[in-house]
Amino acid sequence: MAKLDDLLVVLEEEVHSFSSSVAELKTFAEELKEPQLQRELQRIRILIEDKQEQQNRRLEREFQEIRELKQKLQKSQLIPRWIIILYGLVLVLCLLFFIVGLVI
Predict the structure, then answer these.
(1) pLDDT-derived band at 7, boundaries 50, 70, 90
(2) Is the dihedral of CA 40, 43, 44, 45 positive or negative?
(3) Rounded distance, CA 71 to CA 64, Å?
(4) Best label site of 1, 5, 39, 84, fewest CB within 10 Å?
(5) Where are the domains of the chain?
């Protein structure tokens, strides 16, 4: 019986705590419905949307700049191809002249 009484006391405390929490939520919900608070919330939403728009535009500009930079980097090389081909041809010619000189 003592355990049942203890459980009832705990249950009663929980119900009282729950009812006080519900009352607090009701007052909070009523405060949210006040016109002044609604205007403030609307202003905050507008500010957030503006900032988000600005951030999206800035990000798009940065992405475009990165794309352009990537294209420029792909086009430019450390050593142009024509120099590599010319160097290879000179090397092959020198090697041929060296081999021909050894044979003769």
Answers:
(1) confident
(2) positive
(3) 11
(4) 1
(5) 2-77
Locus of tokens 């419905």: 33
Q: What angle do CA 35, 37, 43 make, to 5 degrees?
A: 105
DSSP, collapsed to helix, strand or coil, labels residue 33 as: coil
Residues in the chain, overall count: 104
Which amino acid, one-letter code, is at 41?
L
Say how far apart CA 19 and CA 25 lie, in whole Å: 10
- Whole-number Å distance between alpha carbons of 12 and 93: 102
Q: Which pTM value belongs to this model? A: 0.43
What is the biggest distance separating any 2 CA atoms in the chain, rounded to whole angstroms?
121
Cα distance between residue 70 and residue 64, in whole Å: 10
Residue 72 has pLDDT above 90, yes or no: no
Q: If you compute the radius of gyration of the chain from its CA atoms, what whole number of angstroms results? A: 40
